[in-house]
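Summary for the steering committee. The consortium agreed at its last meeting that each partner would contribute one worked example illustrating the joint modelling workflow. Our contribution is presented below. We chose a case with several input lines so that the handling of multiple components could be demonstrated. No manual editing was applied between input and output; the record is shown as generated.
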Amino acid sequence: MLALLAQEVDFVRPAIDWHAVAPELTLLAFGALVTVMDIVWLERGRRLTSSVASIALLVTMIPIVTLALDGEDRVMFGGAFVVDNYALVMKAMFLVAGYVVVLLSTNYVAEGDYWESEYYGLLLSSILGMVLMASARDLITVFVALELLSIPAYMLATWRKRDLKSNEAGLKYYLMGVFASAIMLYGMSLLYGGAGSTLLADINEAVSVDGSPSAIVVVGVIFVIIGFAFKVSAFPFHTWAPDTYEGAPTPVTAFLSVASKAAGFVALLNLLFVGFFGRDDVYEPLIWILAAASMTVGNLVALRQTNLVRMLAYSGVAQAGYMLAPLAVASDVGDAALTATVTYLLVYAAMNLGAFAIVLAVARKTRSAEIDSFKGLFGYAPGLTIAMSVFLFSLAGIPPLGGWWAKFRVMEAVIEAESASGVVLGVFVAVNSVIALYYYARIGLGMWAEDAPNGDTTPIRVPASLVSALAITAALTIAFGVYPPLVSEFDVTLLAGGLGG
Amino acid sequence: MSSLLAASSADVPFPILSALVVTPFLGALLMLVLPNGRPEYFKQVAFLVSGAVAGMTAWVMVEFDKHTADEFQFVDSAEWIAGLGISWTLGLDGISLWLVVLTAALFPLTILAIEAEHTPKAYYAWLLLLEAGVMGVFLALDLFAFFVFFEIVLVPMYFLIGQWGHGARAYAATKFFVYTMFGSAFMLVGILATAFLTAAETGNAVSFDLVYLAEEQALATTTARWIFLSFAVAFAVKVPLFPVHTWLPDAHTNAPTAGSVILAGVMLKLGTYGLLRFGIYLFPEASVYFAPALVALGTIGIIYGAIAATMQKDLKRLVAYSSVAHLGFIVIGTFALNTEGLSGGLLQMVNHGISTGALFLLVGWIYDRRHTRLIAELGGLQKPAPVFAAVFMVVMLSSVGLPGLNGFVGEFLALLGAFAAHRWWAIVAATGVVIAALYLLWAYQRVFHGPAEGDNAEMKDLTWSEGAIMVPFLAAIFVMGLYPAPVLERMEPAVDALIEHIEGNVEDFDEADADQGEDLDVDDLKDLGKKKDSKATDESALVEGGAG
Amino acid sequence: MLLNQFLLLSAVLFCLGVYGVLARKNGMLVLMSVELILNAVNINLVAFGAFRADVGGSVFALFTIAVAAAEVGIGLAIVLLMYRNRRSIDLTQADLLKG
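What follows is the complete predicted structure of the assembly.
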């Protein structure tokens, strides 16, 4: 061991491109600031923290924009950290999603009974993990980013400390999450052993040899994918999602169902497209099964849910299936699969956050997320009803809303593969869209056509922060669908990183 | 149907077709921002918007160049999603012209004829959105755009049935929605496969342009047949063809009157129009291959619809089943794949829209007055409401296909075409005409004849405003029945071009002509009514015997 | 250099850990089983690193140890919270949420 370390004494400090890491550093500084404010000012900081958190996310957008304008791909730390178009698009998505979550949280947290500064500190550090994930092209970076985003999320889910449901939500999320990341780590250790390097680009070189793969590589790839299948709540690793979603505070649920799932996908994309792209004979069948099973089971179980949050959880499982589908034909269509999944992630973030914003707004009056409590909404909250219909029909994939374009990209990718397995998967997506339509449309009709339960039609007062969250998400959902080039004209080729890459 | 570039004869700088789609859409948005305080404004604004669309359509109809009816006119094209070869391309030829006119005419009349029972704001907004979608379907020349409109149409209709319907409205609305979505899900797979496989075969960039894909015909025979099936399923649900028709009676029975009128008047035509434009034009070989099967299904639909209609106790359900039968005629005419059949099918699409639309309106008015649609509870309405009865009689006879009224020409041409191509099926289908006369006249007799008792004796006759709404319907029924030439001569070139397209792309395709290789021309068609008068009189005599 | 023996040991530890997570009902024991898996990972990493004379394995192991400590810290806090509210850390009793 000592001898090994001794070989490395001629340590050279790696060159740091400060511009490239500026988003992470900004977020880190603000996260620390919020935490310090919490410690120093205690209750007096209460009014400020949510504003500081939203300012943090907006300020972090500045370096992202300057990096995008600059347009240069930046590679650091021997290829472990890469800033390319894809990374920037995903980072921007995490920041906007985070901003919307802060808007959703503002009133919820301020009106709740719990201490709040830690809430925003945790939120910011989780977002920092996600932003880092978008650039990670190395097993260690991926792992650290994953834990950085997960650990605060466990605490956020348990945030209502004396609420048994919140405890249980956090516990289930934590145990499943830790178990999954342990399995993933075991897979990573095997991949490292097979390749002798933690860099994804090197791993790709080592595993992409002709002929059948070695057992170590097969087990490594499968374990790593399973680890992230937990994170993106794909069947059969989704069991935590409905319980955690229901028990956790609703803004946290929105955060988990959108940002955390997206981060899992980002990691998966990095690994698949950079790490073991050449080993498609191992990952494609696995992803195919995960995708087909997730969409089918997710939709079928969602059919019989009576709680909207649980229904959104199962529909999220199904949506994860749609997002996985293009990856099952990744080797045939290459970048088309990447674009399809990224498009879906962006659109999904907008529409799902919007749906949760409505749940929050309605629950302010009804104190319930039961589907029946949405009946007759049109009678006393027509604006919310129209917005919710937009989100639901977008989730169902009805044109000309964003969800339709996302689903179209997925279908396009699997059919472009021109293989039997691709077309069968396309039929799976098609049939599942119809099943999903049934439960989304049922809620829609209930809101428009039924009478409000117990005739209570006092209007809902929606606070300004929720209104802005709704405006942002609804505008994006519609804009993505009406003018799809907004989401599909990013050049999202994944830069492999690697030395000098 | 030659190239798009050579198409536009009336070179208009103003994108009139886009305006036809966008105007009602903007109207729907406008509806949402109107203040709630003055509910009567909603109807007026909706009528003005749809009236404006009708006005623009009238202009298009006048400007339409009948000598180049086989080309797409007023073409309006813009890039939409350049990376995937998706464009916003709208165009109009002899096939779509009359369906657009029908749509533009039916919406303002429906809006005028029926008051929203409640929540007028949402009601008229959905109706206008529906009009935008239907217009888009008939005008789109890009497969992507077509699919988008085809799906958009479902949402407003879902809410119209679900929110303003009667009885099991949620069930009916959901059934309608899920059935049609199921069909179109397959069509999406088909559309994508068409675009990508064509790109792969030709080596060109991906394009969703209808004309390009149809002229290219790059797909292998078996592939094309599979893809045709995926389209056919979607359109068959929409038509609806037996055995996927079961959503239709439920939807009609529970829908509000306006929903029924639009559903029967224009939405069912989305299916038959789709079969024509996207089935036959894109996949001529597969259409020829599957034509016997579709003719068989159409014939089964005619007989089944007719028998089922005979047994209905609910007047509206009866009309709904008669729609299944009528749509069967359109399908067998279309898939006779000859000039007579195709023109007949096309004409019948328009005719069915007029006569069944009017029938649903009248049934709706009966329901408004009597609050029941059960035939057994009605009776003797002729005495208190003679004008109503007379109008009902004319509309019903047009639906039966009485010579001199519009229904006859289309049905006769469709049967003539089918007879040449599939003799025995056509003969079976012809019995459907007889049964149609039977059940409609029988229903008329039970509802309007006999003694008027109880509430029936007090039924209000047609009011002046209702009468005014019926005038355009009656005018269309008589004009198209007596002098169909202006309509037919604009369809004919497009239909002939379609048949040439089939001949050009299918080896050993033999157009089964009605009069041995010599195309019927318009002058013959003008006096069709006279030629076949004797046979038709026999029919009606037979029917009246049965009904009495 | 011995590699297979290390891999075998780690595989055994991994299996024990997975079994523990799936079979145990006690929150603390589940946490300890997760620790077993993480230690299996560390053994793998260090063994591979030494075998390939690459320092990356040891570095990765250090990261794993540090992060795992944080993770288990949170885990203990959550289990403690459950104990405070319920006076029990039996996982089968956490059944408020289902459907």
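Chain B has 22 helices and two strands. The two ends of chain B are 50 Å apart (CA to CA).
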